[in-house]
Amino acid sequence: RAKSAGRGCYRFFEAEMNAQALLRRTLQVDIRRGLQAGEFELFYQPQVSLPARRLTGFEALLRWRHPERGLLTPDRFVPLAEDMGLILPLGEWVLTQACAEAAAWPADKKLAVNLSPVQFTGSLVETVTTALHAAGLDAARLELEVTETVLLRETEATLVTLHRLRGLGVAIALDDFGTGYSSLGYLQRFPFDKVKIDRTFIRSLGKSRESDAIVRSVIDLCDALDMVTIAEGVETEEQRRILTAQGCDEAQGHLFGRPMTVPEIRDLLRVQIAPLPAPPRASA
Ligand code: C2E
Ligand code: MG
Ligand code: MG
Ligand code: MG
């Protein structure tokens, strides 16, 4: 390679690096600003029991109502917030906010909150304790969702944290099960309360014998290990029927309800708990 070309390349690379760094810096400031401006919002998606389809609770799903870019889903900003350590204040906000909201629900409805692996480097147990206490929410109503990534960079500290969280009375769910490496091993390494079967397996239920067999095996295994199973991304009646036949405990997906705003779920809960409306009075 010619020296001059190499130098040109280098300059281009350097300029590109600066542009990248600037963009990241801009977004970092933007996330901070958004957090202060109250632009983050939690949506809540129903989780139901099978076969009864009784509402058991909701999973909190983070959104960013960005003034210029519109409503953003987590894939657009969570990885960035993780890189920049901003997931710590953001995650703390999520826990505080979600626990406060759940405290207003009927006591039999549970709350599931997603955790980033990065939060395990912070004072997670204290953050969770504070959020529960501030909201007056019973720990038994909170479930924390972690992915295999948390155990991938497994340290003694991670396991200690998971056990301490469980010690608070909080349940731990393994999210996106089946998408990572050596998944079965993780079920042995930590006693999860619940396993969320990833929607990639649910999607092909009834269409592929392999998927049916995998899902059935996961459900049977979890059953044997005393873990609750929940299927993610259930969209069709056929999927629901197969999961029910296979003995899956719970389900979540567009078939039962999309992620909803706070006013929407409060309406839903009011419908569930309110007595039947009085018959309309004859108009005068
Ligand atoms: P997840 O925890 O696996 O959440 C389920 C995702 O599937 C959600 O995407 C949900 O909107 C979507 N979904 C639910 N039902 C269906 C369905 O029937 N069909 C399809 N196609 N999709 C369905 P969302 O809200 O975009 O969240 C994506 C991911 O972002 C979550 O995956 C979770 O890992 C992460 N996330 C969400 N909220 C938070 C948070 O507060 N903190 C952290 N650290 N991560 C979060
Ligand atoms: Mg989740
Ligand atoms: Mg998931
Ligand atoms: Mg998933």
From TrEMBL:
The lineage of its organism: Bacteria, Pseudomonadati, Pseudomonadota, Alphaproteobacteria, Acetobacterales. This is EAL domain-containing protein. Residues 24-273 form the EAL domain. It comes from Plastoroseomonas hellenica.
